[in-house]
Design brief:
By secondary structure, the chain is mostly helical. It contains twelve helices and three strands; from the N terminus they run ααααααββαααααβα. The chain has a single domain, classed as Orthogonal Bundle (P1 Nuclease).
Length: 312
């Protein structure tokens, strides 16, 4: 695994929308690995090793992780273009919404090749892939691809900006700076990687070391997450509330709640937020980091639970 220099990553934040980035997704996989049952761990390893990722696929995370589960954790971001699954990584619940039928924000996008409605967002994309993973009549290659989606999507739905939008494409159009750097970044990228990357650099830690620290810190609460009801809607609403209260709510100066739909567009949102001169500083990070750590822990434990139940 790698630790990107923060300044290198900032330059690319505006162009990328990866839930948790390379390190975050690998941290989720590392935590999950340590809580898999022997049967689930064996099947995960068998499926992934016997059905490797196409070596011709261009990979964003470099060097490519040698552990199959860690490598699988980031595959869905690299494959979403040719797989046409970009919309499956998130659901855009508008800020200001507290209760709603999430299906209203997740219309199906057509019929899939197997006769089922093709999912429109993570709300139905994750169950869609779980059904394939459970189905032993599917080919091993199909089940391996589904496993990679499941590993990735459980991580994604715990990133608060994969559950929320402020008419800014989940923070991608909210322009700001990170820790005083003059180059422009965006809120989505800050939560994907910027804040985590800053911590790794400041603490001189590897993702594996941070995963171990988080796992130990949340071991007590993790016992509940490892054996709770699997409730994707509940988990999405959890992330949405965090986005309201912390991700957007702790910005200074504050960012007004945007229209629920059909707003002025991404460029206008960038200009509006740029004029506020928002900076993700140490004060903001001190509030965000415990939230990020807990979300990574929840994702890891819940992923282990999902896989343990699915791969009995």
């Amino acid at each position: 695994m790698r630790i990107l220099k923060l300044t290198t990553f900032i330059a690319g934040l505006a162009a990328n929308a990866f839930g948790w980035g390379c390190e975050g997704h690998q941290i989720v996989a590392l935590i999950a690995q340590s809580h898999l049952t022997p049967a689930a761990r064996a099947e995960v390893d068998q499926l992934l090793k016997a059905n490797p990722i196409d070596p011709s696929l261009r990979r964003f995370c470099q060097p490519v992780a040698t552990d199959p589960m860690l490598d699988a954790a980031t595959w869905a971001d690299d494959a979403k273009g040719h797989e046409k699954t970009g919309g499956w990584h998130y659901v855009d619940i508008p800020r200001g919404i507290e209760h709603a039928d999430l299906n209203a924000y997740c219309p199906a996008i057509g019929e899939s090749k197997d006769g089922k409605d093709r999912p429109g967002c993570i709300l139905n994309g994750l169950p869609y892939e779980l059904d394939i993973l459970k189905d032993k009549s599917r080919t091993p290659a199909e089940r391996a691809a589904a496993l990679r989606y499941v590993i990735h999507f459980v991580g994604d739905l715990h990133q608060p900006l994969h559950t929320t939008t402020n008419d800014d494409q989940g923070g991608n159009c909210t322009s700001l700076t990170l820790f005083g750097d003059s180059r422009r970044a965006n809120l989505h990228g800050a939560w994907d990687y910027g804040i985590i990357g800053h911590e790794l650099k400041q603490e001189n830690e590897t993702p594996a070391q941070l995963a171990a620290t988080i796992d130990t810190r949340y071991r007590s609460g993790g016992k509940h997450w490892l054996h709770e009801k699997i409730d994707i809607s509940k988990w999405l609403w959890e992330g949405h509330r965090i986005a309201e209260e912390d991700t957007y709510g702790k910005l200074s100066p504050s960012l007004p709640v945007g229209p629920a739909a059909n707003g002025p567009g991404c460029q206008a949102e960038r200009e509006k937020s740029s004029a506020l001169h928002i900076d993700i500083d140490e004060k903001y990070a001190s509030v965000a980091l415990p939230v990020i750590h807990e979300q990574l822990a929840k994702a890891g434990y819940r992923l282990a639970d999902v896989l343990n139940r699915t791969l009995k």
